[in-house]
Amino acid sequence: MLTSRLFLFVFLSSFVITVLGNLEQVNDTDLEKLIANEKFVIVLFREETCQGCDELEGQLSSIREDLVDALNAWVVKAVSSPLVSNFTAGKEVGKPLVVYFRHGVPLLYDGPLNDEIMLETFVQNKEAAVSHLNDDSFEHLTQAASGATTGDWFVMFYRDDSEPCMKFLAKWEYIASQLKGRINLAKVNIKDDGISTGSRFGVDQVPAFLFFRQGKIFNYDLPKLDSKAFQDFALGWYKNVPSKNVPSPKTPFDELVDRAVFMLKENPLLLPAAGIAFILILMAVGFNAWKSRKPEKPTKTKKSVKKSN
Ligand SMILES: *[C@@H]1O[C@H](CO)[C@@H](O)[C@H](O)[C@H]1NC(C)=O
Ligand SMILES: *[C@@H]1O[C@H](CO)[C@@H](O)[C@H](O)[C@H]1NC(C)=O
Question: Could you tell me the domains of the chain?
Fold first, then answer.
C-alpha cells in the first residue's frame, strides 16, 4: 500500500516536473514572426539532447511566469534550429543558447546559468543598450577629441557584410548590459554611415574594438572574445595597453573624400571608369582654358522691352 502510494507520488511529481520543465516549442517561421511582432521574446536554442540543455530549460521554465508578469514576454524554445547560427561560431556550436529579443534586437545571454540572475538581467534590460553612431553623430555624442564629459566609450567597428561581426552584435548587447551606467557602448558601421569615422581611426579590419577615455584611444586586440574579457578591459585592463591620442574630427570635405576613396576601394571595377571620368574632366577644363584664350566676340545683350499699353 505504502509503496504503491510512494510510487504514485514519485510518478506524479516526475510528471509535474516534466510538464513544468518544458517550454513551448516553436518552428522557425513562427519564431521569426514572434520576434518581428512581439516586444519581448526569450528563446532557448537547443538540440534534442545535449549537455546542460534540460537543466537550462528547467531554469527558464521556472522564471517563465515572472517574465510573463514583468514583461509580458514570450518564453519559447527552438530545437535544432538553423537560426542559432546567427549567434554562434566555431566551437560554440551545440551548446544551448538563450537569446533575448527586445523589439527585435537580440541580446545573447552570456552570464551565469542561474534563474535569478537571468530574470534580473532580462527585466533590467528592456531597451537595447548599444548606441548606433555614425559620421554625423560620433564626435557630437562621444566628444572623443576633447575628452570631455560624456564618459568613456567602448566602440565596436563593424561591417554589415561581415558574418563574424553580425554574429557578435548580440554579445555586444550583453556586454553593454553589464557595463550599463558605467561605460557607454556603441557600434559604427564602417561600410555604411560610418565610413569616415572608420577612416579617422584607421580601422581596416573588422570587428575592431576601441576604447575611448579622456582623449585617448586604447585598442582591444586581445584574442579573447568572451564577455568577461571585454568587461575587464573597460573597467581597468585598458591601462596595460599602449594608448594613442584621438585624431581630430574630419571636415565635411574629408568625409566626402573618404567616401569616394572607400567606394573605389570596394569596387575596383569602378577604377577605370573613375580614371576615364577624371581624364574627361581634365579635358573639359583644358578645353575651357584654351577657349577662353581666344578673344571673345562682344555679345549684345538683348534687353526685353516691355510693351507699354
Ligand atoms: C510552424 O508551425 C505552425 C503552427 O504553429 C504551422 O502552422 C506552420 O505550418 C509551421 N511551419 C513549418 C514550416 O513547419
Ligand atoms: C538571422 O539572420 C538573418 C540574416 O541576417 C535575419 O534575416 C533573421 O531575421 C535572423 N533571425 C534571427 C532569429 O535572429
Answer: 24-124 (3.40.30.10), 131-252 (3.40.30.10)
